[in-house]
Amino acid sequence: MNMRFAFVLFKYFPFGGLQRDFSRIAEVLIDLGHEVDAYCIIWDGPIPKNINVHIAPIKAFSNHQRNARFATWLEKTFQEQHYDAVVGFNKISGLDVYYAADPCYQDKALTLRHPLYRLGNRYKQFYKQEKSVFSTKSTTEILMISEVQKPLFQKHYNTPETRFHLLPPGISKDRKAPKNAEEIRTQFRKEWDIKDNHQLMLMVGSGFKTKGLDRALLALASLPEKQKANTRFIVIGQDNPKKFLTQAKSLGIENNISILKGRNDIPHFLLGADLLIHPAYNENTGTILLEAVVAGLPVLVTDVCGYAHYIEEADAGAVLSSPFSQLALNNTLANMLSSEKTLWQQNALSFAAKADIYNMPTRAAQIIEATALKKQSNQT
Q: Cα–chain-centroid distance for residue 83?
């Protein structure tokens, strides 16, 4: 039975983790014979041939104003268009299925913000949209990509357990180390002029502040002089690097670091690097952690990341416990860079060969189909 699905996303750009999940789930549904229409405010990148993309004709001075107008526009649009299910990748009213990549906004507003923050329109709008998804009055099915945030949503909204569906990670198999991995590594390091006695640190992810780039720069600057001179640091992500380049210069490490925009050849960087560093302030999952593991790259990460436990299970690096300590990060980085990494690499590849970490898009598509059939049944 062929069905029509509406996929809703505030902003699409080619290199975001959420956006990649959006595309991969859509591809699975299309391969099953269904039709997918995408609705967004901004689409940055090529328009796929097999997805009908609708860009909302709205403008606003602020994000919360823009999102509110988008919700109103969608409500009107969906009255005119029939879809078997509406699938949201951001929190917005009117969803049949929500893909929960973002943390609990209400919890952050109550614990990390001044009480006056909750008097503003920004808070009121974001809280309203989150409540429309998670409240007991909602029927939205929720696709969780990590267990970390579920207790927080249930604490603030009493969301029934039956509406949560935990997905396995969805690591692209093209991230796995190929048979010619060593050849790719050698060529990569030649292209980037990384000498045999040099170490390459890698950081990947949009949102440099949240990912802890400032912490990583401090750790790099703290290395003993000889070790620091032999360490390169490449950062890849969609964000403004100005603040962090200024920080690097003030720390005297501007010649050690390169900050690149998002790109399609991340697997080559994973094979060419010696260590992935990810000292995030918060992270619902952290897909890049598992992408590093399946490439055989050791990982240094903070325990607040939803997927950090996989690094411990695989024994493929080091996980820093909370509360965060910059000194602990500095020392662990120095120790990992100076250590023999073969065992971590072997452990990572062994874990990648047997772990259930590749099937997220398929499982998500199955739940979306089931939700649509349930909706049809309830309407008849």
A: 27
Q: What angle do CA 43, 44, 46 make, to 5 degrees?
A: 95
Domain limits for position 207: 173-354
Q: Terminal CA-to-CA distance of the chain, rounded, Å?
A: 17
Tens of pLDDT, residues 139-165: 999 999 988 899 999 999 999 999 999
Partnered with residue 305 across adjacent β-strands are 283
pLDDT digits (tens, 9 = 90+) for 166-179: 999 999 888 889 99
Residue scoring higher pLDDT (272 or 378): 272
Domain count of the chain?
2
Give pTM, 2 decimals.
Answer: 0.86
Judgement on whether residues 122 and 230 belong to the same structural domain of the protein: no
For helices 213-222 and 326-338, angle between their N-to-C axes, nearest 10 degrees:
60
d(CA 329, CA 319): 10
